[in-house]
């Protein structure tokens, strides 16, 4: 599913009106009726006090339509107009008149803190103050209103966006409505998936309001959400008359004394993802561990007992290296990475201490084979690209880095983002149970295994992230997130891939 910018969504709105020959007001009525239906279905006639806070733009217009329809349905509704500007959109003005005429109610005008109503914790608040039109800091009293609404602990539903949030930017130190639900029009907004802002949107539901299909299909998106529908098209099935040589040879290079588990996890994950042959390249202290815990792996020890050092690998064309898990950053181990970077021309996967080595020696960045995949968690990313002021700046910096070194970067997190040049792919699977030591090592193994099987690197990253997180979700389906350990994710990789081809159960 595509994520568009606010500007694109405004454009989509215009094109829809033109192509469907409807007025802006008719589109607003259509969109807001859907919101009303959602809310009405949920409230089911409940005797609850509904407070609708409307801005003076089209988001406020939506709020007025929803308020009118709720009143007509018999709900107890109070409407507040947040008068942050003297300008009013046509959609707002028209619906303001209709509300007054048809419901005989009079919206309360809020102009300062003195006008704020009391909001009780059992009230139901509809936030229609700002939508995608917010473009600058809010005046103080409107900020205070947002804080007041949040402090009330009332249940909050945001229309299109929680007010105070920008679709594709950020205003520093500004309060945002902490919505329980956001009913958003047509397409999700980028801010719903970024660590700093995601939680404000609560549960997001996308409301199809019949925006021009051609525009949606043909306009290039700011980012793409990856779910089952997208992932299934990336899978490469095995054919019958094949042998292990057709599925590649992966080398997992990593480990140090006390950290050998990372190599076991990565190696096993690569095998479970379908790689034909796998060699773990490790310090000598890990030999017995690897051979005992993973008999399917071949083991190649470097000439040092406790950490990696330079060694010659007999690499053949197409062999793939996954480097860095549990490796430490000893200078002698960095010599191995340096020599591999000089020797290898095929894309590599670099993770964990491999990334820390690159941060320590940025001169190595130029040597990374084109199309390699780097999988940093936020701290590793910061070491690599420097700090950022907000998530949008982070994305810009990652895109710049990706273009400069021609690599794909997997920014791990609750919504892991895979960035390849101008493309941003946002993963929608995964759960907090995966915030546990070793789950990143599993992901590295998965992606290395896919690379070795010939998946295009950006696809290996996007697909690998999806099945890794989907496996994590399947682990907790009959357990709890707290109990998940990284090894469980490996055991569910097969089921995660199979789930791509299973139809969701339909209720009788
Ligand atoms: N696109 C679609 O598909 C559909 C969209 N619909 C709805 O329209 C909503 C967008 O409406 P909108 O453009 O009128 O903007 P909205 O968010 O109401 O803001 C109002 C105005 O406030 C201003 N302003 C900005 N920041 C400010 C600040 N800090 N302090 C003071 N003023 C500030 C700014 O105007 P400016 O002053 O910059 O000219 C802005 O225009 C959208 O979210 C959805 O709910 C649906 O009805 C139908 C389908
Ligand atoms: N809250 C979360 N929701 C979804 N996925 C998560 C969450 N926390 C962590 N993960 C996933 O778990 C993995 C953790 O990787 P990483 O931090 O490198 O762990 P480690 O270094 O211990 O192996 C990443 O793939 C990340 O996306
Ligand atoms: K809103």
From TrEMBL:
Tell me yes or no: is Isomerase among this UniProt entry's keywords. Answer: yes
* One example GO MF annotation: metal ion binding
Annotated residues for binding of K(+): 59, 127, 163
Q: What is its EC number?
A: 4.2.1.136, 5.1.99.6
Q: Which residues bind AMP?
A: 412-416, 440
Report any Pfam family annotated for this entry.
Answer: YjeF_N
Superkingdom of this entry's organism? Bacteria
Q: Per its Swiss-Prot or TrEMBL entry, what cofactor is needed?
A: Mg(2+); K(+)
Which residues does the UniProt record annotate as the domain YjeF C-terminal? Answer: 227-500
Which residues are recorded as binding (6S)-NADPHX?
Answer: 58-62, 131-137, 160, 326, 377, 441
Q: Locate the YjeF N-terminal domain: which residues? A: 9-217
Coiled coil regions in record = none
Keywords assigned by UniProt, alphabetized: ATP-binding, Isomerase, Kinase, Lyase, Metal-binding, Multifunctional enzyme, NAD, NADP, Nucleotide-binding, Potassium, Transferase
| Catalytic reaction annotation | (6R)-NADPHX = (6S)-NADPHX; (6R)-NADHX = (6S)-NADHX; (6S)-NADHX + ADP = AMP + phosphate + NADH + H(+); (6S)-NADPHX + ADP = AMP + phosphate + NADPH + H(+)
Q: Which InterPro entries match?
A: Carbohydrate_kinase_pred_CS (IPR017953), CARKD (IPR000631), Nnr (IPR030677), Ribokinase-like (IPR029056), YjeF_N_dom (IPR004443), YjeF_N_dom_sf (IPR036652)
The protein's matches in SUPFAM superfamilies, at most eight in alphabetical order, are given as: Ribokinase-like (SSF53613), YjeF N-terminal domain-like (SSF64153)
Question: Would you kindly state one Gene Ontology biological process term found in this protein's UniProt entry?
Answer: nicotinamide nucleotide metabolic process
Q: Does the keyword Lipid metabolism apply?
A: no
Cofactor binding: number and manner: Binds 1 potassium ion per subunit.
Q: Which family does it belong to?
A: In the N-terminal section; belongs to the NnrE/AIBP family. Belongs to the NnrD/CARKD family.
- Its function? Catalyzes the dehydration of the S-form of NAD(P)HX at the expense of ADP, which is converted to AMP. Together with NAD(P)HX epimerase, which catalyzes the epimerization of the S- and R-forms, the enzyme allows the repair of both epimers of NAD(P)HX, a damaged form of NAD(P)H that is a result of enzymatic or heat-dependent hydration. Catalyzes the epimerization of the S- and R-forms of NAD(P)HX, a damaged form of NAD(P)H that is a result of enzymatic or heat-dependent hydration. This is a prerequisite for the S-specific NAD(P)H-hydrate dehydratase to allow the repair of both epimers of NAD(P)HX.
Q: How does it assemble?
A: Homotetramer.
Task: Please state what the protein is called.
Answer: Bifunctional NAD(P)H-hydrate repair enzyme
Print the organism lineage.
Answer: Bacteria, Pseudomonadati, Bacteroidota, Flavobacteriia, Flavobacteriales
